[in-house]
């Protein structure tokens, strides 16, 4: 089954989900705003992490340097104090000399293994240099606990002295993480405002394009903002004016030619009446009638292309369709009606009547009979015109909706009319904000479906 669908706004592309060439969904957001925010936030997070790492590393190195220099002087002072005390008084001084991360022990302790930490090695070297050549320092590190450093030496009287050093990481201020998170949030908010400010003109430009009517007229885009935004708005407004002027000129030319052709056609019909040859006279009348239909359809197409001036009103769709079908059946044409809306609907009745008439005429020309169906749908109403004709080749689905296009063969010039019926139906459907869909039916035939947006008002019981 093949089908062609015409949107109410031909400039607006559907916003369907996009998959990658491998079948998966894109990781990047589809909107420019989302992509810019993702790039900006990712950059800010990485920059904050790097900045935090550099600051923490610099602070750690600075604190370690100060601590190591302080430890060397403090240990040398503590050893000097113990040297001045008699042996029995030294234990009383140990608690006074202990610090938060190291303490003294009078006596030997089982040594550990070789030093594997660079910080421990710096501490051991600093303490050794501070004590001087008079003290032999043995530095080891616990095999199972790399944060425990043992420094063993002997006082001048030969008494063993052990310094047990606990290597603790530099404490992190609790407010630092909070400050960094608040800074990141502030930068994210500023980035959101900046990206929104930059992408808002693009959103307005897209909205202006979406609000263009079938005749491509719409309110002009505001020419305010930054230099680039003003230039884009002016270019869009200028483009819109040029397109509108071009369409008006094209429609005026078509209307003028079609209107001016009526006079010579009338004169030719009068002259044909004067012919003595009846067969030739009938052939000329047939050609003139075909030309007259073409001219009238051309005038109608040009008039509809200038926009609908008819005001919308609430109508009974069921009554409108029943009246149309009754007119055809009264004239002996095989047209049937099924389904119902059963609720008033707001639309432009004359434009809708012309749409349905063109679709029914098209079905009768090529399908010999026609069936009209009406029903409510989500967000609007649906009117379908069905026939059992030859249908339309899939390659011709889009072309048949163009003005003056006729398919040769089953829809030839003798039976195909002017080629404006479907084009006018499409043009009026777009003007009503609806959607025209052509679909080949299973088993043969064509389905022309008109979807009109709106909400039928249910009658009160």
From TrEMBL:
GO terms for molecular function: ATP binding; phosphorelay sensor kinase activity. Its EC number is 2.7.13.3. The chain crosses the membrane at residues 36-57, 175-195. It comes from the Bacteria. It catalyses: ATP + protein L-histidine = ADP + protein N-phospho-L-histidine. Keywords: ATP-binding, Cell inner membrane, Cell membrane, Kinase, Membrane, Nucleotide-binding, Phosphoprotein, Transferase, Transmembrane, Transmembrane helix, Two-component regulatory system. It is found in: Cell inner membrane. It is a multi-pass membrane protein. The keyword Nucleotide-binding applies. The keyword Ubl conjugation does not apply. This is histidine kinase.
